[in-house]
Amino acid sequence: MISRDEILKPIWYAFTALDLDRNGKVSKSQLKVLSHNLCTILKIPHNISALEEHFKDDDEGPVSTQGYMPYLNMFILNKIQPNFDFMELNKMCWTLSAPKHTSNKNLLISDVDAFKVWCIFNFLSEDKYPLHIVVEELEYFLRKLFAAVGCSWNEGRFEDYKMQLSATKRHLNAWELIELIGIGHFTRGINPQTLSMGINEVCQEIVLDVIKQGYMMKKGHKRKNWTERWFRLHLNHISYYVSEDLIEQKGCISLDRNCCVESLPDKDGRKNLFIIRCVEKSFEISASDKKTKQEWIHAIQDCIVRIRQGLSSAHRESRQKRRELRNRMKAEQEIMENRMRQLQLANESKQAQLEALSKDLQDTSIRGDLVEQRRLKNQTELLDRYKRDLEQEKMARMQMEEQVVEKSSEVEQYWQRMQELEDMYHQLKQALDDERQAKEDEEVVRRLQARLLQEEASKRTELEQIHLQQQEVLSQSQKEKKELEKEKAEKECALQVALEQLESLKLKRQGAQEEYKAVTKKLERASNKTKTWKHKVSKHEGLLRIVQPGNKSPGKMTNWGQAAFTETELDQMEKIWQENKNRSWDGE
Question: What's the rounded Cα separation, in Å, for the pair 515 and 521?
């Protein structure tokens, strides 16, 4: 269904063509002729007196577009019949407006092709007057045209043209579009006949809503014979003609939501059959091949689905989506521009604030200079005072440094004394170790001497027994004198051997006694040395406790004699060792 906006576009060109003075007004006589022609083409009964009645209060002169629109809507557009020829309306309006714009131009396309380009422009143009086509719709039309003529799309050339167009304006009017196609700006090198066929195909597809067209065989209803017809598929109907020149139309198949299309099996020697079932009757059609048959079935089914869903043709729907997208982008661009203006205003206000701040800073700097002078004066006075305080502080610091030097010397002496004490402690420890070792050696010699004395006593007891036995033997019997003498001699020999052994034991005992004397002397030297260290330590503030030899009071006894420490000293040492051990555990 053709919308009212699409009908108004060619009428606007006709009204503009009648405006010879270009002041936006047309005489009533010309409007009467225009209205009569519109009523004839739109198949509306024409009321001659309606125009006079409508403008009876305005007899001063020509009528403007705003004045003619109420009459046009009330007496013409509101009474349009759905079966009028839209191309006849376009031709009438083209005839009025084209000579003024195309007569003096040398175009490479015919007037018929220029008319079709004009119709395409009216379909793709925006619904704003004066009419113009935007760059996006121009690209859509050129892509369709290149696809129709079988040429590849040159993106670079179009981008160059779009940049050139953007430098002046971003849209074209109808006559600029016709000139663009007519001079071959984009179609240079394409055969004129091929270009004419391409323009015709695009015009039929976009303007006339010809979804698909082509030759097919149709079965008659009365004679049942098969005849070749030229079929044209629209959204709401399928028209078929004798030939593709469209001179003689043989019939029309109306499509509605109750129609359907189905594929039929081959029969009666006919192949690629399908049937269109309508409410009143059905139509059997035979395509040239399977591909063509499937294309027609799919196209008809798509039209029926669109009718059931209440949708318009694919091109009108696509045009509406593109317009909505452009409007949305335009709205977003306007929002961005408003934001930019707001930012610019904010920037200007900030700039004014900065200028005010700069002025305030200048005033502040002047006041700051005065404050700075006073501050410098105060600073000079403070500086003099600080110098005096600094000199006093310097003198105090020198005194403190002298005290620090004295304290440092005392600390050094203290550290030297501590070092000497540590050395004395190590030497005392070494002396104690030597004393302990001497006592251990004395104990060893003492045990050796005791053992030798024990052996000597046993030998002496044995000799006494032998002597007693000898005396007894001598006193018993003189008879056995010889034997006894003999035995005596033997005993004397044994005695001699025992005496020799006794002598050797005496020598050993003397050597042991000498060793004991040497150990005793060594112990005395160690004791003297300990007493000397005790005297030295007592001079150093009692930092160390001297280990002294035990007194003659009862002490702890061991298997080898009297111990070096008493029981009390051992308990005290054990207590100190336990405290050090507990302290080390607490530190861990």
Answer: 10
Digit-coded pLDDT (tens) for 423-440: 888 888 888 888 888 888
The 3-state secondary structure of 398-452, one letter per residue: HHHHHHHHHHHHHHHHHHHHHHHHHHHHHHHHHHHHHHHHHHHHHHHHHHHHHHH
Q: What is the pLDDT of residues 154-198, one digit of tens each?
A: 888 888 888 887 766 778 888 888 888 888 888 888 888 888 888
* Cα 166 from Cα 402, distance rounded (Å): 91
Helix (H) or strand (E) holding 241: strand 237-241
Contact 233, 244 (CB under 8 A): no
Instruction: Tell me the Ramachandran region of residue 70: left when phi exceeds 0, alpha when psi lies from -120 to 50, beta otherwise.
Output: alpha
Which of 519, 529, 517 has its CA nearest to residue 442? Answer: 519
Look at residue 375 and tell me whether its pLDDT is greater than 80: yes
What CA–CA distance (Å, rounded) separates 160 from 180?
14
CB 254 within 8 A of CB 236: yes
Q: What is the pTM assigned to this prediction?
A: 0.55
Instruction: Give the relative orientation of helices 4-18 and 111-124 as an angle to the nearest 10 degrees.
Output: 120
Host H or E run for residue 178? helix 174-182
- Asked if 32 contacts 47 with a C-beta cutoff of 8 angstroms, the reply is no
Which distant-in-sequence residues (6+ apart) come within 8 Å of 286 by Cβ?
A: 216, 217, 218, 219, 226, 270, 271, 272, 273
The answer to whether the beta carbons of residues 515 and 497 sit under 8 Å apart is: no
Answer whether the bond into residue 549 is a cis peptide, omega within 30°.
no
Q: Would you call 208 helix, strand, or coil by DSSP? A: coil
Amino acid at 158: F
Q: What's the token pair of residue 59?
A: 């007899």
- CB atoms under 10 Å from CB of 444, counted, come to 13
